Amino acid sequence: MLPIVKKRVYSPAYLNDFFGKDLLTSFFNDGADYATPAVNIIENEKAFTIEVAAPGLNKEDINIKIEKDVLTISSELETKNEETNDHFMRREFGFQSFSRSFKLPESVDQEKIQAKHKNGVLTVDLPRMDEAKLKNTKVIKIS
Fold first, then answer.
1. Which domains occur in the chain, in start order?
2. 12-58 pLDDT, tens digit each
3. Per-residue b/e over 123-132, b at no fewer than 16 CB within 10 Å?
4. Which of 98, 79, 82 is nearest to 90 (CA)?
């Protein structure tokens, strides 16, 4: 069962009609979903596939690592703009980051994991082990 995440709304509904929903939602929202990309997990007989929405990111901006059977996909991106004119100087900067972690099942062959990035979508293929490798699990009887 998946957990349900409810967002807290701190403004009465009639204020949305006056100020607009976007203004009040972005101001009063707790921001839990702004830095978390959408993820699809697809399962079939041969593999699992994780699709991560990563628009605006290049493949060099994304890090993928496996540590203790946990797959972590993360990114940190810093932008800087500087504009100089005769009468003014303008500097803007921004920072964007995310991290998502997934516990890998024992049936995933970690040596054959592959990833590709195309059109703003990161696709990570997690192939399953052969049946012969899975049957090597040892069951211990309790006496």
1. 7-33 (no CATH), 37-130 (2.60.40.790)
2. 555 555 555 555 455 555 444 456 788 999 998 889 999 999 888 88
3. ebebbbbeee
4. 82
